[in-house]
Write a structure and sequence with these properties.
The complex is a heterodimer of chains A (about 325) and B (about 120).
Chain A (H helix, E strand, L loop, with lengths): L2 H34 L16 H10 L11 H21 L1 E3 L3 E2 L6 H9 L2 H11 L3 H32 L4 H7 L4 H4 L1 H14 L24 H26 L10 H26 L5 H30 L1
Antiparallel strand pairs in A: 1-2
Chain B lengths: L5 H27 L31 H23 L6 H24 L7
Helix pairs in contact in B: 2-3
The chains are: A mainly alpha (about 325), B mainly alpha (about 120).
Chain lengths: ~325, ~120
């Protein structure tokens, strides 16, 4: 296969995943939330149980007027949704779907790259909030900055625990090294990583930066039309990314309960990603929003010490084994 | 794509495609959208009332202490990852683990100090 064709297929695969998986998760959220709350959710668009609702939303958003407030810092304001979206596209490049190179591009520092670009989220939020020149946006942005900085730590420490266990920073290498008993060994790291990941993408119960009953709509207050839609898309790509990272780091990625990993690996990965996404949606329905001080307490006095203990446990077991 | 830098060519290309995606979407938006600007539309939104005071509001920046703590631990993470990959290789073993344990322990002590000094409070 010529190089240009291989490159095109890889890039096209990543872009297709970037544009379809979030829509599936978003549609699932509409329907799952609705049924958990005793409603039906969208039923009209596409004629069968509203399957085309998000496509209809997209068509609507692209025709919406784009309003930039007169007081806003226009260039920064307009660029922020793009900065929110691009890191997640990069993350999808290095997530392995199956064994034998079924991945956008395997990088030997994949995990490090992922943690670095996910950390960019705070920049986009600060850009959006400060450039809006709106008091509620600024309050939301400051909350988001403190939240994202704080939860970055347990997030990174939990990931470091897996890197120690596997002895590599390559995501493909981590899945290859993974064994089922790691589910128990890395359980605290799994919990820490998942909770911190939820906070990183600002999903309920960690949505204080948006908090529509307190801050209008936080740092998204002034956004309209397609730029607002991009922030929403970033949220759903975020769910996919956090679910995919949890799958790859902690749940064994393409490894299934019975053989056939080479043939069915991609299916196991997708099933696990959607299962974790379902839990993310479920938590939104089940738990109320935390208060700001409870949020910080949970991070610094709960998750960070737990992650540090996990590091000790991982190092201990690993040295004992060798 | 072969070679060490070759694998990053894919990353660069993907970034270019991402920029292109954004440009195409915004152009489509520009062609399809209505545009009827008005002074009322472009005022700052505050629950539907006229904005009170300046828009560049002053706010108490509560998170600067968290930001300091974050920098400490971010530096720790930079040291942690290279160590995490090699610490069980032959020739490292228990010594490497204890050394990293002391390093992480000192930082954890710092966190404990910050907590005792009551700076980990939002209000």
């Amino acid at each position: 296969m010529p190089v240009w064709l291989e490159l095109t297929i890889r890039i096209a695969g990543v872009v297709v995943a970037f544009l379809t998986l979030p829509l599936i998760v978003g549609q699932a959220e509409h329907k799952v939330m609705a049924h958990m709350q005793g409603r039906l959710g969208p039923m009209y668009a596409g004629a069968f149980h509203g399957w085309a609702q998000l496509i209809a939303d997209g068509v609507k958003f692209v025709q919406k007027e784009s309003v930039t407030p007169a007081a806003a810092d226009a260039p920064v304001f307009k660029l922020a949704p793009f900065v929110a979206l691009l890191p997640y596209l990069v993350v999808l490049l290095v997530i392995p779907l199956g064994p034998g190179g079924l991945v956008g591009q395997s990088l030997d520092i994949g995990l490090f790259l992922v943690l670095a670009v996910v950390g960019l989220g705070v920049v986009s939020v600060l850009m959006a909030s400060w450039a809006s020149a709106n008091k509620y946006s600024l309050l939301g942005g400051l909350r988001a900055a403190a939240q994202l900085l704080g939860y970055e730590l347990p997030f990174v420490l939990a990931a470091a625990s897996v890197a120690m266990a596997a002895g590599t920073l390559s995501l493909t290498g981590i899945v290859e090294a993974w064994r089922p008993w790691w589910l128990l060994w890395q359980l605290p790291a799994l919990v820490v990583f998942f909770v911190a990941g939820l906070a990183e993408i600002r999903r309920p119960p960690f949505d204080m930066p948006i908090a529509d009953s307190e801050l209008v709509f936080g740092y998204l207050t002034e956004y309209t039309g397609l730029r607002f839609a991009f922030f929403l898309l970033a949220e759903y790509v975020g769910i996919v990314v956090i679910a995919a990272l949890t799958t790859v780091l902690f749940l064994g990625g393409w490894k299934g309960p019975f053989g056939l990993d080479t043939e069915l690996g991609w299916l196991w990965t997708l099933i696990k990603i959607f299962a974790v996404s379902f839990v993310v949606i479920w938590l939104r329905v089940a738990y109320p929003r935390l208060r700001e001080d409870q949020l910080q307490r949970l991070c610094w006095l709960g998750l960070v010490p737990l992650a540090l203990l996990q590091l000790v446990l991982t190092a201990g077991v690993k040295v004992w084994l060798t | 794509m072969g070679g060490y830098l070759g694998s990053y060519a894919t990353l660069g290309l993907l970034l270019a495609v991402g920029v292109l995606f954004f440009l195409v979407a915004m152009t489509a938006n520009r062609l399809l959208r209505t545009n009827r600007p008005s002074a009322a539309k472009s005022t700052t939104y505050e629950c539907g009332l006229d904005p009170v005071g300046g828009d560049w509001a002053q706010a108490q920046i509560r998170y600067y202490v968290y930001a300091y703590l974050y920098v400490l631990f971010a530096v720790e993470a930079v040291f942690l990852f290279p160590w995490a990959v090699i610490f069980d290789d032959p020739g490292f073993g228990m010594t490497a683990v204890v050394e990293m344990g002391i390093f992480v322990g000192v930082l954890a002590l710092g966190l404990l100090y910050a907590w005792r000094k009551r700076v980990l409070q939002w209000t």
